[in-house]
Amino acid sequence: MLKEPHPGRVKTRLGRSIGMVGAAWWFRHQVRALLRRLEDPRWDLILAVAPDHEGLQSRVWPAHLPKVPQGTGDLGARMGRIFRSLPPGPMCIIGADIPSISKTHIVQAFHALGAQDAVFGPAPDGGYWLIGLKRRAAVPASLFQNVRWSSPHALQDTQTSLAGARIAHIATLRDVDTIDDLVASATPS
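^ thats the sequence. predicted structure below, dont judge the formating
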């Protein structure tokens, strides 16, 4: 899931520290590097873009990658729409602002979906950088209901919305929302 990298419309918390143009520049280059790293014949890489019309027409992202609109609503409404609109089968949605995602993480997520109904890649702030669903049957109507987005409760709330599902976790990775996140993501572990 990604937004068009316009100053003031993407990574605004980071932009308060480094400037909106700098934050948009970082996001654009971060996403391009991420897409290059994650392209692999083992899965289809599809860009869920926003805003819809502009994202579908965008020349910023690689032209050979298919795009689908995110649509309107909060993050849960948009992710739920994507899960419900694509053909059945295992599917993972990731954020585009996580510098350390690798193919190994994606392989781990799909492997987890072999035995579980859902998989999460937790983030240190209580959210998550990846959600995957097996999608053999209909996506539960309860998915993403009552989730407190952008809070330390987002992961737990989303898991609660999947009542009865068998859930796996893979690696905890940091997303970049602030200058401190950016510095931490650039520091070798």
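The domain at 2-186 is CATH 3.90.550.10 (Spore Coat Polysaccharide Biosynthesis Protein SpsA; Chain A).
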